[in-house]
């Protein structure tokens, strides 16, 4: 199995196409979903848009019509890509991510975080293959956060980053223990490489390459870094929910449910830190 085959592209729409949509269609025909924070929404938004912050989307998804086209946007296109993936996994029929976010919509050129992709699992994947995939992605995220703290933040990492890093290591331990329980009694387990072919380059959830993310992060402000971390936590939350749906065994479902809830907590904490950065800027 090739690791990259586990991810598919997230459908997108350009800002120019969104402008055409707004000008030519009635708001009854589509939903323009803003997944930024209320402070950002108050400072400027697209006409006719509704606000559901990324961290609240899963709980408030019932406010949206799954049969209507949904165009999702944020500041840079990063959080909205995660939101688009979430809605796709919840069987929304027509959902699109606005490329480049409101920054590009306003005609500005900015370097957004590396693009993410949506997880897509084959029904033929075994439980241990799902677990190995999760372990590899957690490993990539650990590499990213460690390097971010040591190299880019000059070893003065925020306590929040450290807390998430510790949780990621605990997730790896949980997944490795689960893999031991899933293997055949007589089997010698080479985990995870003997279960799923690892990618050539380290990747995080969303199939974001660690090196690409680190290069992007080198000259960014804390607000930008927090937005990327929010995206990663939302990706991981969505990923574990997808894993939960992909397995029929109650044991794995319970583990993936716990990990999803922990990622949701990370997202909430990162959102609070992001709001503080907005208020100070």
Tell me what you see in this structure.
The chain is an alpha/beta fold and 281 residues long. It folds into two domains: 8-105, 3-Layer(aba) Sandwich (Oxidized Rhodanese, domain 1), CATH 3.40.250.10; 119-280, Ferritin. The chain is built from ten helices and nine strands. The strands form three sheets. Strands 2-6-5-3-4 form a five-stranded parallel beta sheet. Strands 1-7 form a two-stranded antiparallel ribbon. α4 (78-89) links the parallel β5 (69-73) and β6 (95-98). α4 runs parallel beside α9, α6 (127-152) runs parallel beside α8 (210-217) and α9 runs antiparallel to α10. The radius of gyration is 19 Å and the shape is globular. The mean pLDDT is 90.
Tell me the count of domains: 2
The first-level CATH class of the largest domain is given as Mainly Alpha
Described by the principal axes of the CA atoms, the overall outline is globular
Poorly predicted segments: none
Task: Name the descriptors.
54% helix; 2 domains; globular; 281 residues; alpha/beta; 10 helices; Oxidized Rhodanese, domain 1; five-stranded parallel β-sheet; Ferritin; two-stranded antiparallel sheet
How would the blueprint of this fold be written?
Elements: E1 7-8, E2 12-13, H1 15-24, E3 30-34, H2 38-43, E4 50-51, H3 57-60, E5 69-73, H4 78-89, E6 95-98, H5 101-105, E7 118-119, H6 127-152, H7 159-182, E8 203-204, E9 208-209, H8 210-217, H9 222-246, H10 250-280
Parallel strand pairs: 2-6, 3-4, 3-5, 5-6
Antiparallel strand pairs: 1-7, 8-9
């Amino acid at each position: 199995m090739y690791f990259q085959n586990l991810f598919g592209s997230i459908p997108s729409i350009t800002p120019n196409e969104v402008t055409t949509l707004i000008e030519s269609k009635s708001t009854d025909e589509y939903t323009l979903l803003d997944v930024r924070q209320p402070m950002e929404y108050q400072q400027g938004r697209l006409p006719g848009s509704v606000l559901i912050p990324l961290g609240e989307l899963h709980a408030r998804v019932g406010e949206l019509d799954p049969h209507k086209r949904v165009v999702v946007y944020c500041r840079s296109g990063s959080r909205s890509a995660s939101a688009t993936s979430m809605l796709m996994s919840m069987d929304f029929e027509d959902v699109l991510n606005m490329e480049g976010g409101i920054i590009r919509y306003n005609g500005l050129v900015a370097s957004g975080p590396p693009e993410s992709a949506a997880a897509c699992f084959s029904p033929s994947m075994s439980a241990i293959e799902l677990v190995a995939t999760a372990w590899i992605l957690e490993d990539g995220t650990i590499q990213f956060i460690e390097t971010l703290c040591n190299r880019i933040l000059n070893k003065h990492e925020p306590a929040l980053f450290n807390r998430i890093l510790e949780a990621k290591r605990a997730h790896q331990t949980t997944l490795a223990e689960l893999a031991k329980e899933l293997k055949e009694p007589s089997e010698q387990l080479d985990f995870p490489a003997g279960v799923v072919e690892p990618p050539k380059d380290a990747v995080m959830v969303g199939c974001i390459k660690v090196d690409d993310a680190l290069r992007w992060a080198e000259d960014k402000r804390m607000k930008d870094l927090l937005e990327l971390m929010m995206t990663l936590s939302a990706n991981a939350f969505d990923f574990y929910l997808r894993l939960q749906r992909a397995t029929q065994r109650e044991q794995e479902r319970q583990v993936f449910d716990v990990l999803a809830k922990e990622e949701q907590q990370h997202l909430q904490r990162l959102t609070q830190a992001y709001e503080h950065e907005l208020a100070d800027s």
